[in-house]
Design brief:
It is a single chain. β14 and β15 form a beta hairpin. The protein is α/β, with parallel strands linked by helices. Helix content is 39%, strand content 23%. α7 packs across α9. A six-stranded antiparallel beta barrel has the order 10-11-16-15-14-17, surrounded by four helices. Strands 2-1-3-4-5 form a five-stranded parallel beta sheet, with helices on both faces. A four-stranded parallel beta sheet has the order 7-6-8-9. The protein folds into two domains: 168 residues, Rossmann fold; 293 residues, L-fucose Isomerase, Chain A, domain 2 (3-Layer(aba) Sandwich), CATH 3.40.275. The radius of gyration is 25 Å and the shape is elongated.
Length: 469
Amino acid sequence: MSKTTLAVIVGNRDFFPDRLVSEARADLLQLFAEMDIEPVILDENATKLGGVETWAHAKICADLFKQNAARIDGILVTLPNFGDEKGVADTIKLSGLEVPILVQAYPDDLGQFTVERRRDSFCGKISVCNDLRQYGYAYTLTDLHTVHPLSESFKADLARFAGVCRVVKGLKNARLGAIGARPGNFNTMRYSEKMLQAHGISVVTVDFSEILGNANRLSESDARVQAKLDEIRAYAKSDAVPSPALLRMAKLGLAISDWMRSYDLNASAIQCWTSLQQNYGINVCTLMSMMSEQLLPSACEVDITGVTSMYALQLASGSPSALVDWNNNYGGDPEKCVLFHCGNWAKSFLPGIEIKNAEILATTLGTENTYGAVAGRVPAGPLTFARLSTDDTLGMLRAYTGEGYFTDDPLNTFGARAVAHVPGLQRLMKYICKNGFEHHCAMNASHSAAILQEAFETYFAWDVYLHEG
């Protein structure tokens, strides 16, 4: 993941102590160095101590932001004292930036409630937020109303905000590949390209015949094909897979990656069954797993909103995501369930990953045509789940997200599998079913639901349900 770059506005108001501005700059530069965040901040000599207070200051600061606009991911507004709400709002307006905004205000010290040290940032933050709202800007708040930048609380705020910036920037520029048609019986995979495009998410389509044609034209002796074969064998144990199936995987993998590169795509959703097995003789799961591991998420059954959910989780956490079925109850435990796919999960989820055949599909399509699925068990650890959906009837995008844990509870079955503990699971399942969400959801081995909720709700104005146990 690339380094986060934040534009910084240090607010000031003339009848408050100026020294607080200098101290705030020093605090923030120390913090940014610790967290590996790149600041775009006024030089101390550009305005009075590098703060923003007047219209003239706003113009100078906005010009700096304009010069660095291409690399700015978000804006941090810091208020070491009351600040000037108009100076802050004018700076953002003049800069032309359309990025997430975090507003932070310093706390007063009861032992320094003097003219020389009094801040009143508690009140100033309310005024700044009022002006931002008047100017039409969405913004993010810290967990505590006033918080020192070097506190652990604000470090957590800033880490979450960096995730929000990644999600917003990533989704507003997302380019997703839809390979093939959705399986005919999967009405659940319907979605609106137009609604996604309205939020900056582009979908590029291709007929599967074009991909398969390009794969078939590749020669076994092609150096790229042999290199792809080596990559597949190095990725996962493949002793049980016949050589012809591995060769077909290598050719198909190259055809897909060539197409994705030619359109600068960030993610893909692939038709898979049953056309691929019947017309090409493999499962594409291993290739999808490899792409997801390389942070190019790939979803089953042309589930474009599913892969959007995967990509959003990846942006939030910086780690691979997977597409899962909410698949089975776990015995009689109402707060546990089995997550499953046949499967295409990234290697990060499956320490003992193996390439096998898709056992369920093999019952009707033949074992010889279903090699390429990956199998393994997800170990215990953190879980975030998420699902984005286009609600065509209401003309809006809707989402849910929440957190739980992967567990080590016994599970004797095949495929890519996990046992999940989700507090309040029965309430979540009611919400999913009552609101017509798909049976797929995205999962990530992190706790990042708060990042997604803030990004989706505040900066995209999507309808978001945050599941809390």
